[in-house]
Specification:
This protein has 257 residues and is an alpha/beta fold. The chain contains 10 helices and 9 strands. Helix 1 links the parallel strand 2 and strand 3.
């Protein structure tokens, strides 16, 4: 699939593999990169053969955030427009997609790239990777969902220090802090993430999509509202053919014992 210049998209056996490929820029995003990523996400969402998405970067970096070299030194940057028109739509698309997203963080992950990684449902990092919030150090605020994702994942204390001090957080530390799912050796990252995607492909698509909805809703619903949403979605899934097949298989296994 050669419709893109800043990313690569391939699909095989139900898994879409999306890689940012601005290697010389450590996969820093320009506006076009975000637009192409959004187009690829929408393309995958519309393709019923796709059941899971792996997102990574080519070369030695997952992503260096926003490419500031795209801004002219003589311009006053309209970064609010950049976020509204290019980055925020990507974050929303990942979080609202029916598909599970697995981020394979293969190296440095900084700025907006952290937000894009954490927008994914499962984050696996290579041992050499690190996470870096440089925003305050360059007179900006964290964006691309970072203030929400970091705070919800780690709590106010660790998230505040990470964002205010701008220290690099190793993959092992990120795992210990509950920011990501797991850390693996660099050479094992691709295979580990592909295995996770294959597992997700084998799961019921409706159950995955509904679980994503519940996780996302949990950030703003009251407990009563969350319980009601769980009830309603569980009722829908319980009446679906996939659950009837699971019940039949359960009794078949029980009978065979």
């Amino acid at each position: 699939m050669a419709d893109y210049s800043d990313i690569k998209l391939t699909i095989s056996d139900g898994v879409a593999h999306i890689a940012v490929c601005r290697i010389k820029q450590l996969n820093a995003y320009r506006d076009q990169t975000a637009d192409e990523l959004l187009a690829a996400i929408n393309r995958c969402d519309a393709d019923t053969s796709v059941r899971a998405v792996m997102l990574t970067g080519e070369g030695r970096a997952f992503g260096a955030g926003y490419d500031l070299s795209t801004i002219s030194p003589d311009d006053v940057p309209a970064l609010d427009d950049v976020l509204e028109n290019h980055f925020n739509p990507v974050i929303r698309a990942i979080r609202t997609s029916r598909l599970p997203f697995v981020a394979a963080v293969n190296g440095p992950c900084a700025g907006a790239s952290v937000g894009i990684a954490l927008a994914c449902d499962i984050v696996v990092a290579a041992r050499s990777a690190y996470f870096y919030e440089p925003f305050v150090g360059i007179a900006l605020v964290p964006d691309a969902g970072n203030t929400a994702f970091l705070t919800h994942a780690m709590g106010r204390g660790k998230a505040s220090a990470m964002m205010l001090l701008g220290e690099k957080v190793s993959a092992d530390t990120a795992s210990d802090w509950g920011l990501i799912w797991k850390v693996v050796d660099d050479a094992a990252l691709e295979a580990e993430c592909r295995s996770i995607c294959d597992t997700l492909v084998s799961r019921d698509a409706g159950a995955i999509a509904s679980t994503k909805r519940l996780i996302e809703a949990s950030h703003h619903l009251t407990l009563d509202e969350q319980l009601n949403m769980e009830r309603d979605l569980q009722g829908e899934l319980g009446r679906a053919p996939a659950m009837k097949a699971q019940i039949a298989a359960f009794f078949a296994r029980k009978k065979a014992k």
